[in-house]
Amino acid sequence: MRPRPADEIPEHDSTPGGYQYSLKLDGFRALAFVLDGGRVFLQSRSRRDLSGEFPEIAAYLRDHLPPGIVLDGELCAYREGRLSFTDLLRSHSDRERMGVPVSYIAFDILAIPGRDVRALPLRDRWELLGAALRDVGPPLQRVLVTLDEETAHGWFRDMRALGVEGTVAKALNSPYRAGATWAWRKIRHSDTRDGALLGVFGPVDRPRALLVRLPDDRTVKTSPQLTSTQSRQVGELVRGHLGELTEHPDHGPVRMLTEPLAVELRQATGRHEAARFVRVRPEG
Questions:
Q1: Which part of the chain is the ATP-dependent DNA ligase family profile domain (predicted)?
Q2: What is the mean pLDDT of each run of 10 residues along the chain (284 residues)?
Q3: Which residues form the catalytic set?
Q4: Residue closest to 190 by CA, chosen among 97, 107, 266
Q5: Is the domain defined by 1-25+144-188 classed in CATH 3.30.1490.70?
Q6: How far is the C-alpha of 204 from the C-alpha of 164, rounded, in Å?
Q7: Using CA atoms, how far apart are residues 246 and 17, in angstroms rounded to an integer?
Q8: pTM higher than 0.85 for the full model?
Q9: DSSP for residue 45
Q10: N or C: which end of the chain has fewer CB within 10 A?
């Protein structure tokens, strides 16, 4: 189950049953299967087994949870008081030598011994998760959550310095289903900055997306698709600046501009960098 991106933290009562707010951690998403025979399978999003790369986590789960438990969570490394994604890419021996601890932060439970609980609403699964982890400690714990919207905004503002990527809002009535869903929403920290519009995708008078150059000189396609108002504004901006139609190696046909035009972008920080178009800058 994957959250869809959102621009802002939703109001608690804007969905039936309300939202649960949790920290958006910068780590490796992994399902944790505690199996019979002392086996533990840490499954990455690409279905790769990570238990050999994080043997200390696999061993702790094996020794402290009964077979039949399935958790969803995040493998997180800590260095100097903040999350460190880079250290997750190091070998286990290197992390041990450098004194970098790793934790498994659980945010959902899919099964308990003898029972699949995915059809239950999140509020019930959260209680089951708490019961399953009642007697455990680091490196295994539940993610920090709140039902208070104001508290969620405070976390979003104050925890960025600790390496927290943002906030996840989850509908308390939502069952656990595979794939992306609007029942879960992720709100990442972002910065607005100037960029250069290089080309447009789709009809030139109503583009769907833009080819832009970021301040670090990387060239990316904007996402998500432009709104109707944004599309109209860009169509008016590029009139008289249209150049040749060319084939982008990753994104297909793009109409290049005869000269770059100034636009304002919102660029997500952290690993998952993406550029969202904000507005045109006619003064540029």
A1: 95-188
A2: 90 96 94 97 91 97 98 96 88 94 98 98 99 97 97 93 93 95 89 84 96 85 86 92 90 94 76 72 50
A3: 24
A4: 266
A5: yes
A6: 39
A7: 49
A8: no
A9: T
A10: C
